[in-house]
Amino acid sequence: MSPRVDEQNQQIRDRRKQQLLAAGAKVFGERGYAGTKISDIVGEAELSHGLIYHYFSSKEDIYIELAKTAFMTSYETIRRAVQSSGSPYERLKAMTEGIFATPRESGHFFLIALQTNTSKTVPEEALAISREYSAKTLDLLKDLFQEGQKLGEFIQEDPMGQALMYSSLLNGVVFTRLTYPSLERFPQIGQILRMFTDTRFVKE
């Protein structure tokens, strides 16, 4: 078999795997882990039932890969923003705008992350992934708030508490946007930033 044919076959395999993962994200997001069957994912992907086992051994494997994608993507988004140039306030503003500009279709990954942290039925490995990346994310945010406090940009509150508050606020807003998809101009970024900004530090 020629290298070109090998490459084409690999591309087909990659597309099918992504097709299955996209279907899994939608079904798990809508039905939860316990309420999802392999047949549901196959049906959503519109592929043959036997094909899925060329890529995944179980629905648990699919869920774990999706959970890893959800938490890693969130972490990387925040890491890039926190470690970018600009003042702490500017980085917090850019990060908040970027997160809320995420397409609504990614809401399935948010729901997977949410159920990983709240459901007792999800695989333990998915929960371990959540703990790892959530801790790393909070450490990044804590460092950002700490830096901003030293420069007088942010209010003087416990930096880890502020990191938790910001993270909780983001989760709440994303959940609200998924619940009420017709909402427009929500959230107002300025409202969020004012919760963390020192009143003596004025930014338009």
From TrEMBL:
Keywords: DNA-binding, Transcription, Transcription regulation. Signal peptide: none annotated. Residues 14-74 form the HTH tetR-type domain. InterPro entries: Homeodomain-like_sf, HTH-type_TetR-like_transc_reg, HTH_TetR, Tet_transcr_reg_TetR-rel_C_sf. GO terms for molecular function: DNA-binding transcription factor activity; transcription cis-regulatory region binding. Pfam families: TetR_N (PF00440). PROSITE patterns: HTH_TETR_2. Residues 37-56 bind DNA. SUPFAM superfamilies: Homeodomain-like, Tetracyclin repressor-like, C-terminal domain. It comes from the Bacteria. PANTHER family: HTH-TYPE TRANSCRIPTIONAL REGULATOR BETI (PTHR30055:SF234), HTH-TYPE TRANSCRIPTIONAL REGULATOR RUTR (PTHR30055). This is TetR family transcriptional regulator. It comes from Paenibacillus azoreducens. The lineage of its organism: Bacteria, Bacillati, Bacillota, Bacilli, Bacillales.
